Amino acid sequence: MRKTILTIATLMLYFSAGCGSDSSTTTDAEPNAVSDEQTTPEQETPDPTTADETASPTNPLDGIGTVERIGSGFRFLEGPAYRSSDNTLLFSDIPDNTIFRLLADGTIEPFRENQQTNGLLFDSQDRLLIATHGGRTLSRLEDNDTVTVLAERFDDALLNSPNDIALHTNGDVYFTDPPFGIAPEASEVGCSGVYRLTAAGDLSRFWCNGINTFPNGIALSPNQDELYVAFSGSGEIMRWQVGPDGSIGATDSFATTAGSADGMVVDAEGNLFVTTAAGVEVFAPDGTLWGVIEVPEQPANCTLGGPDGNTLFITARTGLYSVQLQ
Hints:
There is one protein chain. It is globular, with a radius of gyration of 29 Å. A hairpin with a 4-residue loop joins strand 3 and strand 4. It is mainly β and 326 residues long. The chain starts with a helix and ends with a strand.
C-alpha cells in the first residue's frame, strides 16, 4: 500500500514538471510562448470549405507569355472562332470578304471566299454561325456547305449589320446589330440593337438605342446567367441578367474601358477579356480591371483556344496574334 502511494506521488511530480522537460527549459521559455502541444483559436487549421469561399480571385495575367504575331498581311481582321475538334481557328478579313483558317500546324489558308463576314462562332454541332456584316443577316454554314439565313428582318425591317454572336447552351443566339457594314442612313430598323434568336426561331430585341451607340462585342458568363455587351461609342460594357431559359432580365453598367470597346471573350473563371483602344483589357467578374495586354496593333476581337484552352487569339487590323495564359 505504501509502495502504491509512493508511485502515485512520483507520477504527479513527473507530470507537473512538464512531461519529462527539464526545469531549465521551462524557465528559459518566453513568458508568452506557446508550446507545440498548445493551440490557440488563431492557430487552428481553417476549414477547407470556408477557405475556398474566402479565397482571393486569381489574376489571369499572372505568368502570361509574350504576345506573338502568327499571321500578317491582312486588311482588317475580326471574329475569331476556335474549333477544338480539329484545333483550328477561323477568322474574318472583312474588306477581303474572306474567312481564313489557321491550322494546328500554323498554316493559314482561305476557308471561304466571297463571304461577307464579321463575327463567327461554332454551335454545339460544330456548324459555323456567321454575322454577315454587309450581308445584313445572321446565318449558319451547314455541313453540306450551304448557308441558312437564321435572321434577316425584325418587324419587316432589314437588320443593320449583324456584328458579333454569343450562344446559350439551350440553342438561343444573342447578337449585336450596329450599322458598321452599311451607311447609318440606310438603317431600316432605325437604331443600333441587340437581339435574341431562340432555338425555335423567335427573334426579339432587348436593346434599341441611337444608331451611333454601336453595340459590338457580346459574351456570356460561364454559368450563362449574365450577358455582356461592349459599346464602341461610349467604351462602356453593359451587363444583362439572363434567366435559365435564356430570357433577358435587368441590366446595369459593368465597366468602362479606355475606349473603342470591341470583341470580347470570357474565361472559365468569369474574367472578361475585351479588345479596346488600349489593347486587351482584362476585368474580374466584379468589374475590377486586372490589367491590359498590349498588342502591336489595335485589336478588334479575341477568343480562347489551343489544345489546353489557354491560348488567347487576337485579331488586330492587319495581324493575327496569340499569347499563352496560365
